[in-house]
Every structure is written in C-alpha cells, then in structure tokens.
Design brief:
By secondary structure, this protein is an alpha/beta fold. It contains eleven helices and nine strands.
Length: 335
C-alpha cells in the first residue's frame, strides 16, 4: 500500500530508497529549495518503486564492506518481487545520476554528498537477488562522506520510513579520537593504519619476494606467516588509494612444514593438523603465491604429494629467489 506524503516527505522517501542500493548521487538540483523535485514523466513510477522498497524493508538484507577508497554494498532479498524491484530501482537511480538529478538536499549529509558528486565513482552490478554497488573516491574527505552515507543507508534498510524521515549530520574529524585499524582485504588479521598523505605510498604493481625461513612451535601459527596479512592490507588500504601488489612467499628451512597438508603435517609432528593452512588459504585467495623449496622438502623426508594444493614446489629456494629477483621482485627476508 502506498502511503500519502507531503512533498518534503516524498523527497525523503526518494533518497531513502536510493540508499537501498548504495546511494546514487547527483550534482544538480541545488537550485531547487529543500530538495524539491521536478515531476518528470518517470517520477511517479520511480516513487512507487521507492515506496515499495521502504514498505518491505524487512524483506531486504544489506551488507556494507569498507574499501580504502569507499564502500561496497550488497542489497538483496529472497523475495523475487522485492529483488526485481531493487534491480529496477538501481536502473532508475543510475539514469538519474547520469542526468545529475539530485534529491533530498535539505538533509545536510546528502546535500554535501551531492555537491561532491563529480568526485564520486559508482559502479552497479545486478545480482540474482538484488544489486551490488561500489562507491569510491580519490578524495579522502569524500570517502568519509561515502562511508557516513552507507551507514545511514543501512538504517533506511533496517527501519524503513522511520529512518527516512530523519536528517543526518555531515561527518567531522575528531582530533581527540584514536586512529582506527582497518582490514581492507584480509579480515581480522594484519590491521593497518591509513596514511593518505605520507611519502612512500604503496606503489601500483609492486612485486615482493618474501623469503621465509622461520619455523614455529608445531601446534602454533608460524609468527612470520601471521605477519603476511599486514603486507596485503598495507597495499590494499594503508595509503591514499589501493594498489595492486604481487606477493610471492618462498618457504624453506624450518618454514617448510607450513606448506604441508593437514595429514602430512599431523604425521610429521604428531599434532592434529597444520595450524598455518587456514590463514594461508585466505592469503592465497587474496592473490598471495606460496612456493616451497623442493630440496628442503626432500631433505626433511617429505615429497611433493605431501604439499598443500595452494603451494607450488620449486626446484629450490635459491632458484626461486634468484628468478624472482631477475623478474623485478624486491627481496624481503623474514628469517
């Protein structure tokens, strides 16, 4: 059922529904007092979709993932009708974004966001149950606006009309607050602090050969491997913007056991399995390549069949390290 509303509430509902798909923004509309809208031929149809989503907000689930340069949101529903309406709404908002058709300018947060529209990049990917949206910016101040907007939008998804009637403050920096650790690529491991204006920023296309020889207690995570998520997160979110890096980890010496399967590790150590594999799999899924020294492996009485599938077996650590350095990889020892 569509609820009657006054014009200011209509503007509220419009941007509230926009929020369900990650908050499309437009730069124009600043000359229309209080975010007032021009009733074009698509407005009534779009508003009906917005109302539909607000009224059925309990059928909608939304997740927000912070990126170093913004956010990625996923808005979906198991209800096919709601999912279809989310996709319909995304398409409508993309069209309005391209036209610069801003709304809800009476809300301080959204007004500020609209004014920064030329510094925001938004990408939309329809999914079977809704839509995935990435919002990003190269401007750190705009990134904070994007993140604040995403938080407010989650309130829209959780509370529908109740949240849509509110106004929202522009985020301000709190000099007294402690800087927060972030985990831009590897969750819950290797947290980093962001330094967007510092020299020696993470460089796009960096290549690291990490020479790892350190062992560990048989039932504990290798301390050197425990440090690797920080390397990944530094390049993903420690600087002004994310940078792609190629990390190759060469295991030899006392570190070779980390390369073994659970069964081979248990047989070699008398423990229940390899405590390193879970984190190594996460790192591998994030693009890290693991290489184990074939010579060290054989000298330890192990065979290539004992090595986990995520680890490559090299002729030797020496040849692996030399080849990688010849290919332009920077040598990073972790003894």
């Amino acid at each position: 059922m569509t609820r009657p509303s006054t014009p200011p509430l209509s503007a509220t509902l419009l941007i509230a529904a926009t929020a369900f798909v990650g908050g499309a923004v437009g730069a124009s509309g600043q000359d229309r007092p209080h975010g007032g809208r021009r009733f074009d031929e698509t407005f009534v149809e779009d508003r009906a979709a917005f109302h539909f989503l607000l009224e059925r907000h309990e059928a909608i689930r939304r997740t927000v993932t912070q990126r170093p340069d913004g956010v990625e949101t996923l808005t979906e529903s198991d209800d096919p009708e709601v999912a279809a309406k989310i996709r319909e709404h995304v398409a409508a908002m993309k069209t309005r974004l391209e036209k610069g058709d801003g709304v809800r300018l009476r809300d301080p947060l959204f007004a500020k966001l609209f004014r920064a529209a030329d510094r925001i990049e938004m990408k939309i990917e329809p999914t079977k149950k809704g839509a995935r949206v990435v919002e990003r910016s190269d401007d750190p101040a705009v990134v904070e606006l994007i993140r604040a907007h995403a938080k407010v939008v989650s309130g829209f998804a959780a509370r529908g009309f109740q949240e849509a009637r509110k106004s929202h403050a522009v985020p301000t920096a709190d000099a007294s607050s402690e800087p927060a650790l972030s985990y831009p690529k590897i969750p819950d491991a290797g947290g980093v602090y962001r330094f967007p204006n510092a020299p020696y920023q993470p460089r796009e296309g960096a290549k690291l050969c990490i020479d790892l020889t350190r062992g560990s207690a048989e039932d504990e995570l290798n301390p050197a491997i425990k440090k690797l998520p920080r390397f990944v997160n530094l390049y993903a979110g420690g600087g002004a913007k994310a940078a792609k890096a190629d990390l190759r980890v060469v295991l030899h010496g006392d570190a070779i056991r980390a390369a073994l399967t659970d069964d081979a590790y248990a047989a070699a150590t008398g423990t229940r399995g390899n405590p390193n594999l879970a984190l190594m799999r996460t790192l591998h899924e994030s693009g890290v390549t693991f290489v184990v020294c074939g010579q060290s492996l054989r000298h330890a009485g192990q065979s290539p069949e004992d090595v986990a599938p995520i680890v490559e077996v090299a002729v030797s650590a020496l040849t692996a390290v030399v080849n990688l350095q010849q290919d332009g990889f920077a040598y990073v020892p972790m003894h």
